[in-house]
């Protein structure tokens, strides 16, 4: 039985710090066969289009945010877990590179501001998949920001739309919603596609772009996958505001 932990959007340094610490402890104790980070591991606030011309553009630099992510997530994970860890490309991960291309082309350096270089992934033995990651037969992981995927307000619905596009079962992040939706077709319902959205691990109180009321259809969670041959059982693990969660009867708080 293969076990995979799917880390949802952290957007560090805007993460729920207790949830991040609890998840790292869980990974160390659970020792999964693999960890997939669904992307948006770092927020990269300054180069965001929402920060343009505002105070946020002059906050933490891209390299400072990347160093924070390494120090508070990647290195602590590697201290307790030496197995396979794969990071997916994402819209936040693309922000530094896009900022240079669109606003500072004279300073553009293709390699230096790519996410694998910013996060020193090679040094940490962490893989990087820029578009998608096929982790089991008929299943793929994507971040979910690609054009052409119809958004749904129902948790899991966007992932199901992506599954229909790709004709594969999909595990994804990006929406910050947590849910699983399946659809069966054909005579005898012989064809089933499943979409899994793994939520987020942000501290919503620090997401200033949501406005003072912090109104958002978001759910805090991460993913846990069990794989036996061609059979995949997908689970979404809810995470409380205090960062605690339960897996297989064990409370992590």
From TrEMBL:
- Name the InterPro entries on file: Metallo-depent_PP-like
Q: What is this protein called?
A: Metallophosphoesterase
- Originating species: Kitasatospora xanthocidica
Q: Lineage from the top down?
A: Bacteria, Bacillati, Actinomycetota, Actinomycetes, Kitasatosporales
